[in-house]
Design a protein that fits this description.
8 helices; globular; alpha+beta; four-stranded mixed sheet; 4 strands; about 50% helix
């Protein structure tokens, strides 16, 4: 049975799941969510996900929302990316929660404000604040990756897939890979994984500049 992922190309949270699906053994199909034209706020989409967010994974009769939950489910289903021990599983959860609160949440909003929000609605003060928060989170990630190839264990896990997602996008929002050599090398290792694809290759983009 084909797993369906409701997603769109600009969504870093969607990419976390799409990449896990693409690297794993499951057949899956991206279902485009026209986020920028308000589909996620529509009544029909709210019936699918009352939170009005992407991604949403549909696997038969099961519907799941929130990227971290979906990643954990896919690990249960496939045995991939969930760690080899209970301690590794806890560490993966730790990184997933950190990323969703400290990294993706800051970078996602910063990238949206500086690229997708109309210029007249952008706040220099908010952008400055988010830039500082994003750099602080990136410094933590850089420090960790100077000590190891992968965030948890000896190979790629959901910890890596959640933390890397926004860092592959081409839009400018203050992040340049060359400024963070350990992160740059880690992203290169992820790019070298068999089956890796850029988010724009896996999902349809919806924003028209």
């Amino acid at each position: 049975m084909t797993v369906k992922l409701h997603c769109f190309g600009e969504s870093g949270h969607s990419y976390k799941v799409a990449l896990a699906l693409e690297l794993g053994p499951l057949d899956w199909q991206p279902i485009f969510v026209d986020f920028f034209n308000g589909e996620a706020r529509s009544e029909a989409y709210r019936d699918l996900n009352s939170m009005g967010e992407a991604p949403v994974l549909v696997d038969g009769d099961l519907t799941l929302t929130q990227s971290g939950v979906i990643q954990a489910y896919l690990s249960e289903k496939t045995g991939l990316f969930g760690g080899d021990t209970q301690q590794e599983a806890r560490d993966i959860l730790r990184w997933t929660l950190w990323d969703n609160h400290k990294l993706s949440s800051q970078i996602g909003v910063l990238r949206f404000m500086t690229n997708f929000l109309p210029a007249e609605k952008r706040s220099a003060e908010v952008i400055g604040f988010l830039t500082g928060r994003a750099k602080s989170a990136l410094a933590i990630l850089e420090s960790e990756l100077t000590q190891r190839d992968w965030l948890v264990g000896r190979s790629v896990t959901n910890a890596d897939l959640t933390c890397c997602s926004y860092l592959f996008y081409p839009e400018e929002y203050g992040f340049t890979r060359q400024d963070w050599p350990a992160i740059d090398a880690w992203l290169a290792r992820i790019e070298a994984l068999p089956g890796w694809k850029h988010p724009c290759e896996l999902m349809q983009r919806g924003f028209a500049a």
